[in-house]
Write a sequence for this structure.
């Protein structure tokens, strides 16, 4: 790898890691606003609760990023269908533990990535793809579910919702590097 391509690859890994961290923080700030009963609440029979989404994201990240460069991302011990069931005996702490485990595995894998790994081939459900594509796929997947978590939390909290970004009506007051006053 040339110095420029190595620098670009390092920038990509660092930015991807930072973007995943921001997604995790955004979801956790939303999750932190909901009570336990809201955490498990489904808005209708076909929807997922925040608990189910968190359980799914944790399971997905653990499966995809355990031995990321050397084994298929769909691990034989993963129970994907079970991720979409919030068992009545599961606690919020247990689900958040699965969430944290998945994120820990992801961040450990990202920390181990080197520029020369980005063009390597990995597999997800036996489908080969470059590491770059697998990272984009995972980031898009996580961002979709983080958006669902934020929407559900905002819906459930309604008037008690505390915005996660610039409050409505304060966009013109926002300055780069400064929060709205």
């Amino acid at each position: 790898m040339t110095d420029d391509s190595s620098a670009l690859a390092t920038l990509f890994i660092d930015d991807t890691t930072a973007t995943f961290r921001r997604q995790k923080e955004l979801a956790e700030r939303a999750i932190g606003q909901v009570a336990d009963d809201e955490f498990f609440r489904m808005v209708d029979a076909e929807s997922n609760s925040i608990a189910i989404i968190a359980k799914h994201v944790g399971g997905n990240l653990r499966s995809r990023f355990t031995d990321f460069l050397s084994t298929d991302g769909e691990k034989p011990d993963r129970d994907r269908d079970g991720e979409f069931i919030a068992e009545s005996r599961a606690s919020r702490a247990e689900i958040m533990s699965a969430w944290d485990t998945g994120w820990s595995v992801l961040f450990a894998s990202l920390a181990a990535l080197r520029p020369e790994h980005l063009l390597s081939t990995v597999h997800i459900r036996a489908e080969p793809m470059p590491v770059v594509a697998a990272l984009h796929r995972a980031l898009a997947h996580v961002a979709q579910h983080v958006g669902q978590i934020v929407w559900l939390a905002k819906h459930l909290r309604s008037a008690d919702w505390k915005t996660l970004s610039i409050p409505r009506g304060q966009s013109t007051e926002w300055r780069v590097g400064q929060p709205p006053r």
The radius of gyration is 18 Å. The domain at 3-161 is CATH 1.20.120.450 (Four Helix Bundle (Hemerythrin (Met), subunit A)).
